Amino acid sequence: MGLTDTFVKQVKQVKPAGDKYTDGQGMYLLVNSAGKYWRFDYRFLGKRKTLALGVYPAVSLAKARTRRQEARELLADGIDPGAAKRDAKNSKLIAAQHTFEAVARLWLDKTKSERASTTQEKVQNWLANNLFPAIGSLPISTIKPRDVLVAVQRIEARGANESAHRVKSLCGQVFRFAVAIGLAERDVTADLKGALASVQTNHFAAITEPHEVAKLLKAIHGYSGHAYAAAALKLAPLVFVRPGELRSAEWVEIDLDAAEWRIPGHKMKMRNDHIVPLAKQAVDILRDVHGMTGHGKYVFPSIRSGDRCMSENTINAALRGLGFGKDVMTGHGFRAMARTILDEVLEERVDYIEHQLAHTVKDANGRAYNRTAHLPARRMMMQRWADYLDALRAAA
């Protein structure tokens, strides 16, 4: 006959070594001076073993019987319930050590070579300011979509929709990394599709009419600000790279004799190495700059410290100083300027232009061209572009 709740509650130790009261099917109650303990005796692979089911009253008679049944089911499946219990405990310990913050910092370190130092700092700040306070201390394997949603909705509530989407995307990258190293089952951010308000796409302001470009170029060449900023401003329309690529340019990447700038993939948006053929005018500007900054790492160092590159606001601030508001022209706008005029005015081949903009261009078989594709033709196109800009400025 099995035990009853009343008996379990009232029974006291009788023998000095403790007493055992069986409930059947291998389970019994061990009563000693320290307390009342549920135990389950079983045999696995010919060996007698005992499984602890809990301590009364925290574990009631009914709960102990449920645990006994679960152990019997494991045995029926050929699994040692004692080993299963240890594995579950170890998994919980591992999960507790691998919090979202710990995994995110590991991911940041493992992938830092893929990002520019300034981008790495931004990503660290986004995580530290927006995700770590909310879910940083949670074991990453236990985080649910709702946990992430609450964190990013706080950003959205501030009116920073674009930042909310960016932080959600970063969170997804951390989860996919956790999946890859066996610390999470899936990327829970996949369940948040459509949960945030969509971001309205804002195109960077750009001047694309040749007669207006002429005025802009004339103003740029008359800029009387800091020498580094003046040189970067003159070079920007000649190379039409992204602003971050321009300001973080390093002398080790540039071969003035070969008139070539090779930007490593970790600095590029598409993560592929990129070659920028330098027109004669671009080489002349860079030779002048070399006399000022050639002893250091960066072509355009920060005015405050040579150990850092130029601020991301320098070019736009210079344009504002010249009278071109952010709704008229931006540092990024030089790309749209080149894309439009090279195509519509100079009638250059669109695939050459796209290559030079570092956009992905595929061949007839759907394969992406490599960085050296059409390089001689692009070199000539870049010289024609520089000559065209000189002619515009001269006629202004």
Describe the protein.
There is one protein chain. The protein has 396 residues and is of the alpha+beta class. It has 3 domains: 5-91, Integrase, DNA-binding domain (Double Stranded RNA Binding Domain), CATH 3.30.160; 100-192, Orthogonal Bundle (DNA polymerase, domain 1); 210-395, Orthogonal Bundle (hpI Integrase, Chain A), CATH 1.10.443. It contains 15 helices and 7 strands. The strands form 2 sheets. Strands 1-2-3-4 form a 4-stranded antiparallel β-sheet, covered by helices on one side. Strand 3 and strand 4 (47-56) form a beta hairpin. Helix 9 runs antiparallel to helix 11 (280-293). The longest helix is centred in the last third of the chain and has 21 residues, at 375-395. It starts with a helix and ends with a helix. The mean pLDDT is 88. InterPro entries: CB (IPR044068), DNA_brk_join_enz (IPR011010), Integrase-like_cat_sf (IPR013762), Integrase_catalytic (IPR002104), Integrase_DNA-bd_sf (IPR038488), Integrase_DNA_bind_dom (IPR025166), Integrase_recombinase_N (IPR010998), Phage_int_M (IPR053876). It holds the Pfam family Phage_int_M. Keywords: DNA integration, DNA recombination, DNA-binding. Belongs to the 'phage' integrase family. Residues 98-179 form the Core-binding (CB) domain.
